[in-house]
Structure prediction request, 405 residues.
Amino acid sequence: MAGLGQPAQMAFSGEATSARRGETHVMSSAPTNGSILIVGGGVAGRAAARALSRRGIGCTVIERGESVGRGMGVNLPGNAVRALAELGVPHDGPAIGVPVRRREYRNGRGRLLFAVDEDRFWRDVGRPVCARHGDLLDALALPESATLEFAHAVAARPTPAGVAVELAGAPSPRHVDFVIGADGVNSALRAAVAVDGPHPSSMSGSSWRFIGPDPGVDCWTAWSGREETFVLIPVGHGRVYGYAARTHGGNTGTDHSWLAQVAGRFPEPVGAAVAGALDGGELHHAPVAEVRLRRWHNGRLVLIGDAAHATGPVWAQGVAMALEDALVLGELLADTTAECWADVGPAFERLRRPRVEHIQAETERMSRLAALPGWMREVGAPVLGPKNYRAAYGPLRGVAIRPGA
Prediction:
């Protein structure tokens, strides 16, 4: 990996390197009052850099390497789309994905249990979309005020004056005034904040995700059988994003044959989508992990997104919570002098924990419902389904609480 270059505070003092084009630009904004390092160049890290930029603050973002391919699908509910707009990504969903206007929940035989009009529910907030992960990253391109450097952060240690970050292959730690840990569910910086690590989701221990030819699915659709669930969502260009998992906390097989075998017990759209994915599509198997920490900060080190609070994909709030984290943290840093940045972590947690814990509680409730016998789920779904949807997403229609609110 390449070594690190100029510190974040230099991004506004003269020249900064554009992470998107590799060009040099003269910045016209006022100098920042301290150096900020963001560890992780994914959704959370890019969002944090953009949130800082909109308040006139530069930063350095370190990432292990360039992303490859377009990745899997990303479901973005209305509050995620609203947060993207605040970060400068246009509201019009088709620019980054396919609008999700309706949800359908079906049993394993294909019978419709209930549906949700997403257009109506998220009206005046943001139209939900489903996009490819690579398209979302492109939409969240780093601002010119951010310097991208390729390196591997392996540990961090808060100090009285800031944070010392250890980089693989570097002879000595790098010292900065503030660090944002946006390095995902397997965060290397988490050990500096808490001893807790990722643990399997109570809903599903592992899952398959895939991209393949669209078999004609026209909305977000889930099929739930006795022990397995499939979700298919169009992502445009004749492709569909698929998610497959076992309920009751079970694990999927790690061999492709598991997908084909289980899909054969579901209606044709599922079988056709899986067959297409297996025949030249894109497949990804991974554990479904959650992160629950007693605190998200230590001194001038703050974790955001999945590094702090990864949650099972029941309500598709991983990206949304990361985007909101970035917006709130950006405002706190901008409104606080560098000398007082040690106070930012506690303030960030006070503002963000209620919203994150709401999603965690709703995820646990849905996990308990999914563990019920199939016939009980089907009987209760027409009433409990819409009720749970409103309970989970209703509070998220309001804008996330900000500093000074």
